[in-house]
Write a structure and sequence with these properties.
The protein is an alpha/beta fold. 41% of the residues lie in helices and 14% in strands. The chain has two domains: 147 residues, Alpha-Beta Complex (Aspartate Aminotransferase, domain 1), CATH 3.90.1150.10; 223 residues, Aspartate Aminotransferase, domain 2 (3-Layer(aba) Sandwich), CATH 3.40.640. Helix 3 crosses helix 11 and helix 7 packs parallel to helix 8. 48% of the residues are buried. The structure holds 4'-deoxy-4'-aminopyridoxal-5'-phosphate (PMP) and glutamic acid (GLU). Glutamic acid binds next to helix 2.
């Protein structure tokens, strides 16, 4: 059977591919250190699991409303009001099978052939593929380490054309950890409001903030902006619930309705049991989150300190998420045995083969002079992984 062009153009998620490879090596007995995937290593908090068990026992095992049970959408509306200063009705919220699915639905109903989507680079890899799947053209706008990997209003202004449809914003960012301040967002908001574009604002890392950073949702800056923003969020990262597959979007009613109609013909409702667990996550005790954040903070300090101690590595201090995104260009041209190292891809391949350390090459996010290390692993594991990386880099000739 012949695949259509659309299917031939899709590349598999490199983050998930590297994770599968690392997990397979581990299962085969290798002592692998996995800095690959962005998945909290903590277990889902007990009270969340208990809510899922109770849902099963009480027979909540049937189809639900396509966009999620009303109780969950109310809890999400309360959360958005209390924490983000955003006033949405439950009808303006749709719950999907992970934030990746929420994003997919949003791109599908907002973008098509002939449209341009403005995507700051480095970008999380699935944005690029999801944009391409709609037929729209991704317009990459490069941000630099020197500017803290943040899009400036001037850059945005010059990227906008009559074909521009939406801007993708991701603060805190995967892979750079960059967090936009209120002032920086106000600068972007002014440009957005002076044009016809909308915004897809992925806020999934909002709870993972360091150094007193504050999360601001761009939609909260102006009601006119809220009317053309889709806010994306989910429970995977904040509540260590990656496997439960719950994400959500809040948007103007017409957009939410289109996304819900699309979802009604694909996955239908997200899993009923996971929805019950998400009510407990969002409305229940938040103390587990504090403990996870404490540990992430400790690991972040450690990993940044170690990277700063390696000659040639340049890394920003990320304000959020759980990734370090160092520039490794100083090592290009050096050799490991007969292998010359010229890119993040070379480095990731050799480190996995030679040192059993999994990490993600920067090409995944648009620039192969970088690598991404996810610090979603215990401190001892991180220490061991960095020992291996440091010794290996020092052995390059
Ligand atoms: N957005 C970003 C920036 C991410 O890193 C991820 C990670 N998986 C997602 C969305 C999707 O998360 P999930 O589908 O697990 O909710
Ligand atoms: N978003 C995470 C990452 O970047 C999880 C993997 C994925 O969904 O692609 O590693």
């Amino acid at each position: 059977m012949e695949l259509v062009r659309r299917a031939q153009g899709i590349s598999p998620s490199p983050t998930l591919t590297i994770d599968s490879r690392a997990k397979a090596m581990k299962a085969a007995g290798a002592n692998v250190i996995n800095f690959g995937v962005g998945e909290p290593d903590f277990d889902t908090p007990e009270h969340i699991k208990a809510a899922a068990v109770a849902a099963i026992q009480s027979g909540m095992t049937k189809y639900t409303a396509v966009g999620g049970i009303i109780e969950l959408r109310r809890v999400i509306a309360d959360k958005l009001r209390a924490e983000n200063g955003l006033d949405y009705k439950p009808e303006e919220i749709i719950v999907s099978a992970g934030a990746k699915h929420s994003l997919y639905n949003a791109f599908q109903v907002l973008c098509q052939e002939g449209d341009e989507v403005i995507l700051p680079e480095p970008y999380w890899v699935s944005y690029l593929e999801q944009i391409k799947l709609t037929g729209a053209r991704p317009v990459l706008v490069k941000t630099t380490l020197e500017s803290g990997f943040k899009l400036t209003p001037e850059q945005l202004r010059s990227a906008i054309t009559p074909r521009s449809k939406v801007l993708v914003l991701n603060s805190p960012s995967n892979p750079t950890g960059a967090v936009y301040s209120r002032r920086e967002l106000e600068g972007l908001a002014e440009v957005v409001l002076g044009s016809n574009i909308g915004v897809i604002s992925d806020e999934i890392y909002e709870k993972l903030l360091y150094d007193g950073e504050e999360h601001i949702s761009i939609a909260s800056l102006d009601t006119r902006l809220k009317e053309r923003t889709v806010v994306i969020n989910g429970v995977s990262k904040a509540y260590a619930m990656t496997g439960w597959r719950i994400g959500y979007a809040a948007a103007p009613l017409a957009v939410t309705k289109a996304m819900t109609d699309l979802q009604s013909h694909s996955t239908s409702n997200p899993t009923s049991i996971a929805q019950a667990a998400t009510v407990a996550a969002l409305a229940g005790d938040q103390s587990a989150l504090q403990e996870m954040l404490r540990q992430f903070t400790e690991r972040r300090e450690y990993i940044l300190g170690r990277l700063a101690g390696i000659d040639g590595v340049r890394c920003t201090r990320p304000g959020g998420a759980f990734y370090a995104y160092p520039h490794m260009g100083a090592f290009w041209g050096r050799k490991y045995g007969d292998n010359e190292v010229n890119s993040g891809t070379d480095l990731a391949k050799l480190l996995l083969e030679e040192q059993q350390v999994a990490l993600v090459p920067g090409i995944t996010f648009g620039d192969d002079d970088y690598i991404r290390l996810s610090y979603a692993a215990g401190l001892d594991t991180i220490r061991e992984g960095l020992d291996r990386i440091e010794a290996w880099l020092k052995a390059l000739r």
